[in-house]
Amino acid sequence: MLLENKTAVIYGGGGSIGGAMADAFAAEGARVFLAGRTPDRLEAVAARIRDAGGQVETAVVDALDAAAVNDHVDAVVEKTGGVDVSVNVITMEGLFQPLADIPADAFTAAIGRTLTTQLVTTKAAARHMVQQQSGVLLFFGGSDPANATAGMGNVQVGFDAVESLRRQWAVELAPSGVRTVTLLTGGVVDTFPDVPEMEGARQGIIDASPLKRAATLADVGAVAAFVASEKGRSIASTQVNISFGACHG
Description:
Layout: E1 7-11, H1 16-27, E2 31-36, H2 39-51, E3 55-60, H3 66-80, E4 85-88, H4 104-132, E5 135-141, H5 155-173, E6 178-184, H6 199-208, H7 217-228, E7 238-241
Parallel strand pairs: 1-2, 1-4, 2-3, 4-5, 5-6, 6-7
Helix pairs in contact: 1-2, 1-7, 3-4, 4-5
């Protein structure tokens, strides 16, 4: 198995993307620690993993609270001996409207919270990864300089900001053997509500791909598990495009 005897921490582990990564990591042998603010959602993912024979634990953690995040990571390391993979897939607060219509305070507050949670969780994991001289920090979303979609509001700006943060972490952590990788996505169609008004957005993602396909949750989990494993050890300080060519990072 790709991640046998590895420890993975997932912030936003009760969500669809976090759950998909958790399923894949556990199926590949990792011991998975799900963190988030909603116990019921965390436990639903954990139950699915346990039913499939995987190892998983959950914890209610506010990923904006540096002390709580540090305490959680320290507890994971005390229990397992280290942290091999850390990923924060907490949903960005998307303001999907023209930039001219978004109040400045709402825009900056949403971006600020996104960067804060990414900084807090990455710092907590990096502290241990530097000591053990190994580890993988995964990010999700990515930067697409060719983005030509109007009405994205703060979303692509936020992804670009997180990717800039990831690049800086790469510079600082690579000498300690820590890999930083972003999964660049053009959208995951099976996370969309199954309602008629979303059909246009779903089809738009498919049409943007030269292959006329869109990534699924299973695709996200499979690529994340490979990148996090030793099989993917040459993938570092970069984005991995999982958009079927729709994005141009």
